[in-house]
Amino acid sequence: MTKTRSSLTVSLISALMITGAAGFAAAEDISATGKTEPQPMPPAVTIPEAPKPAPINNTAAKPKEKPKNPDVEMAGPLTETRRKEQEQLFTDLRKASTPEKSHAIASRLRQSFVRTGSDSLDLMLRWAETALNQSRDAEAQDYIDEVMAQRPDNATVWQLRARLHLRRNELAPALNDIRQAMILEPRNFDVLINYATLLRETGNRKGALRLYEQALSVYPMMKEAQDEMLKLTEADSDTAL
């Protein structure tokens, strides 16, 4: 009798585990009869198909264009449009009638010289110049190396590295870098001034004088070039006497 009850208990547990409520009903029948009857298979369940994804809408409204800023438009490598704008700035700089006007135009040209096409690299160039001005040479070196690795076609980064070489009394590398900057942008008046200063310091006064003249042909009201050229011509006059 005990074995029969144990068998019935096992049958009840198995029925509950396998078929849930249906198994429980079958187990009651087993308890009543003491026999296990074959149970019919449950009907097949049809699984509905997943809904198809909605088609992608390619006609979404485009974001509105931001208003153009002339200084921002000069950013990045020169496109044909920006090249024409830069040419116009050079023309305006030569024809500027007052120091104030020429200074404003020169500022815009300097911005165009610095642009690399990357906001982060532009920022690094500014940080490098600030670091150089504050004699934080190691920091300036890090920024210059980063920009040089990615945009070696930018004249400003060569100019800044030339300044760094000069700070370390590395004259030959400084001359090489400033020449490269001049090749990349021969009308960069700041590069011309720096190159002239290098030549003057090495005793090449005639070469320096030619570069000051070249800078003034681009930026006639550039006071630094005017002052340095005057010093050289006066010194040459005193020597001649």
Automatic annotation (TrEMBL):
This is Putative Zn-dependent protease. Residues 1-27 form the signal peptide. The keyword Hydrolase applies. GO terms for molecular function: peptidase activity. Residues 31-83 are annotated as: Disordered. Keywords: Hydrolase, Protease, Signal, TPR repeat. One of its GO terms (biological process) is proteolysis. It comes from Pseudochrobactrum saccharolyticum. Residues 62-71 have a biased composition (Basic and acidic residues). The lineage of its organism: Bacteria, Pseudomonadati, Pseudomonadota, Alphaproteobacteria, Hyphomicrobiales. SMART domains: TPR. Residues 39-54 have a biased composition (Pro residues). TPR repeats lie at residues 155-188.
